[in-house]
Fold this protein.
Amino acid sequence: MKILLVDDNNALREQIRQILTSRRYLVETAANGEEALDKLCENPFDLIILDIMMPKMDGFTALAQLRQLKIDTPVLVLTAKGDAADKVKGLDLGADDYLSKPFSMDELLARVRALLRRAGGQSESILQVGDLALNTASRSVTRGGVPVELTPREFSILEFLLHNKNRVVSRFSLAEHVWGDDFDPFSMSNFMDVHVKNLRHKIGDTGNAGIIRTVRGVGYIIKDTNEK
């Protein structure tokens, strides 16, 4: 499942991102409402976690605009304010749930699971190419019906590439999504290559026309099996 996390608090945003990523969710982040709307217009998401108090464009304004754009992705609103008026305003603008800061990560994860279950069939839970299938709901991978055991980061790499099937994903973009703010392009330049190599081995991806194809000097791409 792909989640957009929107919060201007760098430390909290990274803490939540790491927790969600460790549960094998695919997480993109934004620091304000404007950045969030740009990402929502470019790619689909299964869930939005949206802070209210942010610079440039606050969460209420972003929520109102995304609903005006007919983006019906479930939204979990986060706010430091716990009064009823803010809760009512958020729900009236189209939020699906509400969580006041401070909160426990266990409670956040429970709300995330509940909203994703409630969303049901709004998004495709099976990402597939050929006989390789990734289930975003059960967080599992199979090849020819046989389970494939992946590490959380290998799973995130495969999920991100499948979400962007038939599009070239740069190595930096992929690393940024998997490692987030922890990624240092200078000291960790070979990390992505090592993880992709291990991933290819585990899914039995061999040959020049394998599942994960390297685009020299750019990054990687997964194409439909009927694509040349």
In short: The chain is about 40% helix and 20% strand. The two ends are 28 Å apart (CA to CA).
